[in-house]
Structure formats: C-alpha cells, structure tokens
Please model this.
Amino acid sequence: MTEIAEKRRVRFSLRGLMIVIAICALLLVPCVWFLRLIEDVQRQRIRATHAAQLAQVEAMRARLEAEVQRAAALSPSAKANEEARSATTPPATEPNGGLWAALGVNHPVFDQGAVKDLNIEFTLVNDGPETVNPKLTESQIVVNGKALEDSAFILGNGPRDGRFEALPPGNSLRFGYALGKYFETPGVYRVAWRGGNFQSPEIVLRVLKAPGDRQP
Model:
C-alpha cells in the first residue's frame, strides 16, 4: 500500500509541475509581446528623431547656401565683375539674321527743363544674306535695364515703307523719336534697343537738375 501511495504522489507531483510550467508559459507570452512592443516603439522613436535631425541639417545647409549666394550677389567685387563681363560681351545678334542695331542721341547731357528736345535715333542694318522681318513692334526700348511699357506704341508709329517688314540684305532703317517725357527725372540713363534677333549697345545720357535747383 505504501508503494502505491508513493507512486500516486509522484504522479500528482509531475502533473502539478507540468501544470505550473504550462501556466508560467502562458503568463510569459503577453510579457514577451509587451517587451517586443516597447522595442518597436523605441525603434520608431529613434528613427523619427534621426529624420528630424536630418531635416534640420538640410534646412541649415539650404539657409547657408542662400546666404552665401545673397552675399555674393551683393558683393561690390561681384557687381564689378558682372559689369566688366557685360562691357566686354558683344551685343546679342541672331546668327542667321545678321541684323546690326545701334542707337544715337542728339546730346549726351540735357537740363531738366530742356528734355523735350531729347531725340533718340534708331538704326538697323541687315548684314545677312536673306531678307529679314525685324518685327519692330515686338522690340523693346530698355532704359536702365527695364523695358518701356510704351515700346510697341513708340516703335509702331511714324512713316513706314516695305523695309520695315522685309529688310533686304545690305539695306538699313533709320528713324528717330522725341522721347524726352521718359527722361524728366534728373539722373544717368543707359538706353538700349532689343529685338528678337538683334540688340544694340547701350548709349548713356544724363539729365541735370534745372539751373534754379542746383546748389551754388
């Protein structure tokens, strides 16, 4: 009887141990899942922090590049170099058109009260081998780097012949306009004439203050 009782106790002990192990395993499953969830959250947080830092670095780099470009644009030496390049660069022309353009002014200096007498002469020569339409109404009068809004109106007025729409090889156009009302403010003016297939060199003129407004 004693042996039978001992065998039963051993069976019960093994069964209880297995039950305990099974319960522990079931309890460990949510713990492992929770630990993995915490690790995933931490990894996502690290990635987000890294992405934010990269974005800050890129933004700082973009700002520094913009500041460098702005400083270069405002640098007196850069402006001087640009002006030197502009002075040495020949006027733009159409290779196949061969149009040569030039401007002239009757006086380089005017008193403010006498600008009504300011007259600018426009000259265009066809050096190419073919007849060319210069499209004058599409060209622009450029004053200090800005095109006059009335360019089409100005250049579309005046006596016209067939050359104004079909300029033969070796022929030229020459015409002038009184443009004093666009130069009434005292100052230095750089004037050019620009078309789709030609551009003149700049001419420079100056308007002085009226004699009564000048300092003694």
The first helix runs from residue 2 to 74. The helical segments are 2-74, 76-88, 151-155.
